[in-house]
UniProtKB/TrEMBL annotation:
InterPro entries per the UniProt record, alphabetical: SET_dom, SET_dom_sf, SET_SmydA-8
Region (Disordered): 1-54
Residues in SET domain copies: 50-298
Superkingdom of origin organism: Eukaryota
Record lineage: Eukaryota, Metazoa, Ecdysozoa, Arthropoda, Hexapoda
MF term (GO), any: N-methyltransferase activity
PANTHER family recorded: SET AND MYND DOMAIN CONTAINING, ARTHROPOD-SPECIFIC, MEMBER 4, ISOFORM A
Low complexity composition-biased segments: 15-35
Protein name in UniProt: (Mediterranean fruit fly) hypothetical protein
Segment forming the signal sequence: none
Feature: compositional bias, Basic residues: 1-14
Any matching Pfam family: SET
Amino acid sequence: MPAKKQKNKKKHQQHQQQLQQQQQQQSTTNSSQSSMESNNINEPGGDSSPKQLPYRIEKSSVLGRYLVANRDLKAGELLTIEEPLAIGPCVSADAVCLGCYMPVELKETQFCCEACKWPMCGPQCGGLHQPTGHTVQECELLREHKLGAALTAACGKADLVKNYYELILIVRILLLKHHAPDKYAYILQMESHTELRKANTELWQHYEQNVVQRLQRDWGLDTVSAEDIHAICGIVDVNCFEIGQNLAKARCLYKSAFLLAHDCCPNTAHTDDPQSYAIILRTSRSISKDEGITLSYAYTLQGTLKRRDFMHAGKLFWCCCDRCSDPKELGTDCSALVCPKCKTGSVRSTAPLNQEAEWRCDRCDYTLQYKEILKLLDAINYNLETIDAHNIPGLEGFLKKYERVLGPNHYLILSAKYSLCQIYGRIEGYLLHTMSIENVEKKEQYCRDFLRIINVLEPGLTRLRGLILYELHGAIMMRSQRLMMTGGISESNFKRNIKEVIRCLQESKDILLLEPEGTSEHEMGVAAAGALVEMGVK
Ligand SMILES: C[S@@+](CC[C@H](N)C(=O)[O-])C[C@H]1O[C@@H](n2cnc3c(N)ncnc32)[C@H](O)[C@@H]1O
């Protein structure tokens, strides 16, 4: 790929990652709150008080263990806050500090831990020699086997760098066996899907060669059995949450959050504390007593074919939730394509719970095989990823080109619209007060299009809604003020718009102030609250 395209792709990926972080997978319980004992999951050092918990653990042949509401829960109720049992870098070729998970560079000028020579953000890193960061035990192991220097030497070899970072969390869990045996034992009770993984030769061989053999041969862990390493790999893949704020990126295992079952339209939302890496789990809408408490392991802005593949590959199950079962994805139609033959019909899967089912037009006899659909989606996704996330004409060009191929609510179209909602009004040349009325109207329309779908797929108190409502308020306000100045709006319409601005700000504030202090989302919540005060709204 040419360098510029690669750079743009990276930028767009960063933007998409941000979006994905905003939709992140799983979350969890206060250390003094777990009811694990009643289900034979022994809490490390735990003193449990099950009566106070808003949930209990149940078990089913399909879901395994999962959480259920003990009483009616209101939207926004805090279910749990818990610190990680284990934390480590994500599997990525982007180097991060082992103490705080912020990006670092693999070059000679980068600060390295004095003892083990692994790149760190700096000597003052708050995670140095801390349980949530670079521990003394880890440092000794890396130093003894000269792994820090080996990582720096691997600079430019993406697969190798990725592998070094992939191994860190697995090593950290193995080290717990000696210095925190109760935590280690607790982690080992998590689902690893070892038998299913073993049956997948390609997957098993990947872990055998890239993890088991490398740890035993190069990382000095020759006394650890292959069986234990494989089990930990499975546990990490099945149960980890990807977290991070303000550019930090890490993956964590949490004591109770791992028990949440998946649903593609979940009833909880979670975030994480940038200081402690604790996960904060809340209900995003009301949940009835005895109803399952769910979160999404997948990205909201992906179609059923891709979401189900993703969950099957990493979590080893085929999702059959209401969204996946419905060819129109809860009425959003966010996987449908425009029929290339009759140009008026929509092409959808004939049986969305069968990955290999044929796709068919609802108006004519046009059909497509699933492999062709995947090829098409990959090609268009690649195209989107190569557009710089700040390139407004590029993103609008994408919309123009692909709205004829993909349906208007297609997730790739929505992904481009999300980027546009975010950048219109925020970047040089397109700041809100300097934007033309046409561009203000476009921003407003993109926000409305996006919100209409997110209201269905991520309803309630979800970060994505909070962010878009904030963007929407700005666009409506600006349009209304401009029209007022030119006499292009009646007083009653102006007042109606202001009422909508207030509703957007109130909801956005209520959602975003739930985010931890020190995050950009929380700051936006503070700005929404300030705007309401300025408008004289209590
Ligand atoms: C993070 S674990 C959840 C806890 C797990 N059920 C247990 O007993 O340890 C994820 C696993 O739970 C099961 N699971 C979660 N949600 C599911 C769903 N919607 N359908 C089927 N299986 C699900 C799958 O086996 C999946 O790999």
